[in-house]
């Protein structure tokens, strides 16, 4: 298994994270330095946030979009109308491409869900030509994602299972300061640069925030889906209270920070 992200439906993922991935993708593309005429690998393409942003950002020759989840692969195929975009299912730790096949390999919000993230970075390096680039970005779950920390801190206050969820959530691979840079260096990449990228997550109301999690999408949704009826009711009420924060239900906005790192293949 090379992905710990659970997805039930593309629409559910879109409400949970896809809409925010689309906001992050242009910032990440600017950071990576994508140029006209390149062949690019989009590793862990999800529902296509980066894939479809790339063809708007540059006159690329080809984008190979791959994901471990057949749900995501089917969704990108369904949405795609551009002949320069090729889509297939693939394992991040055993990519089905020849050495040096790409000018650039990119991973948007992927590596923290790959248990062997270092092996995935090694594979990204392998399939990029000498002088080409590898780049990735991941959310800062511990200190840069207050909207989601609001939920995990709330359930952590309710019991031990919530505290265990928080331990997993806050310390997934690649999320600590400098961790991406160290991993890139360990895999032999050079001229490494990193920075923080920030967007905002804007919700219309509590239902807009909670619906995809309540439906079981993503790691937080997986936790909620495993609760019994009484625990579920207590969790729903406690997270709603945290979201509303003593004010009537309605719009809320949360800043979100991601770590971004790029390196060159020597």
TrEMBL record:
<keyword id="KW-0808">Transferase</keyword>
<dbReference type="GO" id="GO:0008757">
    <property type="term" value="F:S-adenosylmethionine-dependent methyltransferase activity"/>
</dbReference>
<protein>
    <submittedName>
        <fullName>SAM-dependent methyltransferase</fullName>
    </submittedName>
</protein>
<feature type="domain" description="Methyltransferase type 11">
    <location>
        <begin position="41"/>
        <end position="135"/>
    </location>
</feature>
<dbReference type="InterPro" id="IPR013216">
    <property type="entry name" value="Methyltransf_11"/>
</dbReference>
<dbReference type="GO" id="GO:0032259">
    <property type="term" value="P:methylation"/>
</dbReference>
<dbReference type="InterPro" id="IPR029063">
    <property type="entry name" value="SAM-dependent_MTases_sf"/>
</dbReference>
<dbReference type="Pfam" id="PF08241">
    <property type="entry name" value="Methyltransf_11"/>
</dbReference>
<keyword id="KW-0489">Methyltransferase</keyword>
């Amino acid at each position: 298994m090379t992905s710990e992200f659970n997805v039930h439906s593309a629409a559910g993922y879109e409400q949970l994270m896809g809409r925010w991935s689309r906001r992050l993708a242009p910032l990440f593309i600017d950071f990576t330095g994508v140029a006209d005429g390149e062949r690019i690998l989009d590793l862990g393409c999800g529902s296509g946030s980066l894939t479809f942003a790339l063809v708007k950002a540059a006159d690329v020759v080809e984008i190979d979009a791959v994901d471990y989840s057949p749900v995501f692969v089917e969704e990108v195929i369904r949405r795609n109308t551009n002949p320069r975009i090729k889509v297939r299912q693939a394992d991040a730790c055993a990519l089905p491409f020849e050495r040096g096949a790409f000018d650039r390999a990119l991973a948007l919000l992927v590596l923290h869900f790959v248990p062997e993230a270092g092996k995935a970075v090694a594979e990204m390096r392998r399939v990029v030509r000498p002088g080409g680039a590898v780049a990735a970005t991941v959310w800062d779950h511990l200190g840069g994602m207050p909207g989601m920390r609001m939920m995990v801190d709330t359930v952590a206050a309710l019991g031990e299972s919530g505290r265990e969820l928080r331990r997993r959530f806050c310390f997934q691979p690649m999320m600590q300061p400098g961790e991406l840079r160290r991993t890139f260096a360990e895999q032999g990449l050079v001229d490494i640069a990193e920075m923080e990228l920030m967007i905002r997550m804007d919700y219309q109301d509590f239902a807009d925030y909670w619906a995809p999690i309540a439906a079981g999408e993503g790691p937080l949704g997986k936790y909620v889906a495993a609760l019994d009826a009484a625990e579920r009711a207590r969790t729903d009420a406690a997270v709603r209270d945290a979201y509303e924060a003593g004010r009537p239900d309605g719009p809320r906005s949360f800043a979100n920070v991601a770590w971004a790192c790029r390196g060159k293949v020597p």
